[in-house]
Amino acid sequence: MMTRRDRIREKIMARVRIDEVTGCWIWTGPDSGKEGRGAGYPRMSLGGQTVAVHIVMWTNEHGYIPGKKELDHYCRNRLCVRPEPKHVEMVTRKRNILRQWEARKAASQIGHNGGPPMVCEEA
């Protein structure tokens, strides 16, 4: 007999594509849209409620998320729902913000083609 956890895992995995390169479990279902707070995160219906898939998957596999903690996409892919340390991790708000800042800083140092940023040498 399938448990509730098994049914939830099965429902999520039915809409997941595994990225062979990154190992991310990419959600192929609906997301929260392109704008606003929480934009681009995976969403699904569960028990009549719209919920964040990565949070459901985490709590389904690991349990409760304490009030002072939140989930961070360590892999930097908002559509990843893999509840493992190199993908989604439970961290403090401070750690999550720091990682976001570091990721943005690193991205700004990369040029449009993945190389170093273009610099005008005549200036």
- Termini separation: 71 Å
Order of helices and strands: HEEEEHEEH
* Shape type: globular
Tell me the helix content: 25-40%
Mean pLDDT, to the nearest integer, reads: 89
Structural class: alpha+beta
Please tally the helical runs, counting DSSP H or I stretches of 4 or more residues: 3
Q: List low-confidence stretches.
A: none
Structure description:
The chain is an alpha+beta fold. It is built from three helices and six strands. The protein has helices at 4-13, 53-62, 93-108, and strands at residues 16-18, 25-27, 43-46, 49-52, 69-73, 88-92. The strands form three sheets. The protein has a two-stranded antiparallel ribbon with strand order 1-2. It has a two-stranded antiparallel ribbon with strand order 3-4. A two-stranded antiparallel sheet has the order 5-6. Helix 1 packs antiparallel against helix 2 (53-62). It starts with a helix and ends in a 15-residue tail after the last helix. The mean pLDDT is 89.
